[in-house]
Amino acid sequence: MKNEYDVIVVGAGPAGSMAARFAAEQGVSVLMLEKDRDVGYPVRCGEAISKAGVEEFISSDDKWIAAKISKFSFNAPDGTEVILDFGEAGYVLERRIFDYELARTAANQGAEIITRAYVNGLMFDNGNVSGVKYEFQGEQKEVKAKVVIAADGVESRVGRWAGLETHIDFRDMESAVQITAANIPVDQKTLYFYFGKDVAPNGYFWIFPKGQNNANIGLGVSGIIGKKKSAQSFLNDFMNKNYPNAPVLTTVAGGVPCAITLQKISAPGILVVGDAARQVNPLSGGGIASGMIGGSIAGRIAAESVKMKKPDHILTYDKAWADRLGKRHEIFNRIKEGIYNFSDEKFNNIAHSINKVPYGKRTLGRVFTAALFNQPSLLIDVAKVFV
Amino acid sequence: MYRLAKTGKLMIDILPDKCDFCGCCVGVCPEDAIELKEAEIFIIDPRCTNCAKCVWSCPIEVIKFNREGVLAK
User: What is the percent of chain B with per-residue pLDDT over 90, rounded to a whole number?
Assistant: First the structure.
C-alpha cells in the first residue's frame, strides 16, 4: 500500500472493477476501495444481463451463470401473456461470484484492492480533486491520487463532494425490493415481467429464474408511488397471492436510478461511473453492462491522462460516454416517459395487439410497432434503438 | 429535547434496526444529509430540510415522517 496512486477507484462493483482494470492494464498504479467487507455482496440486483453485455468484458463461465435465458414473458394486467423468443439472449448471473471475478480481472492487471475501506471525503489541491479520505479499521486515513473514479453506486456522494450534481429526482429513483425464493416453478429459460397498477405501477414486477427452481422475485416503484405504497408492500401482496409459502433465501432492498446520465460526469481530478453517474438503461433498469462500459471508458481515459501528464484529458470522458451509450439512454428515457403512465387497459390492448403478430416473427421492432401503432411519437424513438 | 434540522425541528426518523442499508434515500437526498456505512445509517441533522424525499423512496418503510419532531436520545 502506497501513499499515492495514479488512479483511485471508490467502489468495487462492476463499474469500479472495470475502471480499475482498464486503468491498470495501461501500467498506471491503481487502488480500489470497497466499503463493504466483501466484493460482490450484498447483491442489490435482479442479475439479468444480455450475453453480449457480459462478453464484451469477460468470457462466459458457468460458475457465475445461474440461468441461461432465451425467452421473455411479458404479462399484462388482465393476465394476457406475450412471449418473445430471442435464442441465446442472456443470463441471470450469480453476482456474488461474478463481481468477485470482475475484481480479480482488475487485480490481474495489477490493481490493489482493499475492502472495509469507507471513503468519507475528498482531498483537494487548488480546487482539483487530489485524493480521498477514508476510514479503515477505525482509523481515519488519506491517500493521494492523480485521478479519483467515483463508482460508489446509487448513493453517489463522492461526485457530490467534488461539486457535481449527482442527486437523483425521487420520481426517477425506482426503489426496489427483491427476494430470492426456492420452489418457484417457472420456466428456467424465461425472464418474466408483470405490468399494471396492482403489481408495480410506473415500473415492473419481475421473476428471474436462478436455476433449480430458485428465482429472483421483486419490483421497483418510483418515489411517486412509494409515497402511497412501498415496494415491500407490493411484494408482500404478490407473494401472498401467488407463492404464499415459498422459502425465502435472500431479501434485499435497492435503488435503480432510471434517468438519463448526469449532466456532468467529470470534474478536475475526478470521473463518475456506473450507477453513481446514472449510467443505467432508464427503460429496462439494467445497469451491469452499461456500468462496465462507463467504467472501462473512465479507466482508459484516466490512465491516458496520467501517462500523457495532461490532467485536462479526463474531461473528454463525458463526450466519450455520450457517444458510446449516453445519447442512446436519452432515447430510452423518452420511451420510458412515454409508456410510464400507461393505464392497465392500455397494457392489455398492447398485449392483445402483439399476440396477433405470429410467434416466429416477433422481433423487438415488430413488437414495438404493434404495441405503439397509435403512439407515433414514441415509434420514432423505438425505431432508432430497436429496428 | 428535539433534534434540530436545518429548517427547525427534525421530522425525519430512520429506524436503523430495520434498515437494509441500500442507499435509495442517500441517492435522492438533495442535501447530502444522510450518512451511510456498511451497516450504519444516520441523518446529518443540520443539513436536513425535512423534504421527505427519503421517506417516499425507501422501499421497505424504515424512514418515517414524524410531524411531532424526533426526540434526541
Answer: 99
Name the DSSP class of A322. Answer: I
Task: Please name the amino acid found at residue A227.
Answer: K
* pLDDT higher than threshold 70 for residue B45: yes
The H-assigned helical ranges of chain A are: 14-24, 51-55, 95-108, 158-161, 223-226, 231-242, 288-308, 317-321, 327-339, 344-354, 364-371, 376-386
A230 and B60 within 8 Å at the Cβ level: the answer is yes
φ, ψ at A238 (rounded to 5°): -65, -45
The complex's ipTM works out to 0.96
How far does B69 lie from chain A, in Å, by closest CA? Answer: 19
Closest CB to A230 among B36, B38, B59: B59
Partners of residue B32 in chain A, C-beta under 8 Å = 157, 160-161, 167
- Tens digit of each residue's pLDDT (9 = 90 or more) over A269-320: 999 999 999 999 999 999 999 999 999 999 999 999 999 999 999 999 999 9
A266: domain CATH number?
3.50.50.60
Nearest CA in chain A to B38: A36
A159-217: per-residue pLDDT in tens? Answer: 999 999 999 999 999 999 999 999 999 999 999 999 999 999 988 999 999 999 999 99
Give chain B's domains with CATH numbers.
Answer: 4-65 (3.30.70.20)
Please report whether residue A60 resides in a domain: no
| Residues 38-77, chain A, touching B (beta carbon < 8 A) | 44
Q: Does B26 touch chain A (CB under 8 A)?
A: yes
